[in-house]
């Protein structure tokens, strides 16, 4: 956790832009929440023309939509910082105006999630949680993204 689903028109973002945006979403999430980077997931979905509608009509502009799912318990200022920093970074990296970048953050209670085979800790309890995991699980987590 967190998981950020990025949706955009097919062909809008090349592999290099997707990689740069994923790295920046991960960096921002880590900077704002302090959660380890190995938790951050960014999943892209390219939507074919004619498969995304707004106001009942096919989407006519090049927009990026980000739906983020994070553990509940972050402060309102932190959640707002996540959203505003992601909008700015994604706009800068994609070349789109901020008006075309939409970001949503939804909270899920930590005890309703399992990652790496373990129920997640409450925000702030990550160190004790990690210390209590089997060594092979910690080693695996720390290898992610390297």
Based on the structure given, which CATH architecture is correct? 2-Layer Sandwich
User: Which structural class do you get from the secondary structure elements?
Assistant: alpha/beta
Strand order of the largest sheet: 2-1-5-6
Q: Give the strand content.
A: 25-35%
Distance between the termini: 18 Å
Notes on the protein architecture:
- This protein has 146 residues and is of the alpha/beta class.
- It has one domain: Macrophage Migration Inhibitory Factor.
- 36% of the residues lie in helices and 26% in strands.
- It is built from four helices and eight strands.
- It has helices at 15-33, 76-94, 126-131, 135-143, and strands at residues 3-9, 41-47, 53-54, 57-58, 64-71, 101-108, 114-115, 118-119.
- The protein has a four-stranded mixed β-sheet with strand order 2-1-5-6, with helices on one face. Strands 3-4 form a two-stranded antiparallel ribbon. Strands 7-8 form a two-stranded antiparallel sheet.
- Strand 5 (64-71), helix 2 and strand 6 (101-108) form a beta-alpha-beta unit.
- Helix 1 (15-33) runs antiparallel to helix 2.
- The longest helix has 19 residues, at 15-33.
- The two termini are 18 Å apart.
- The mean pLDDT is 93.
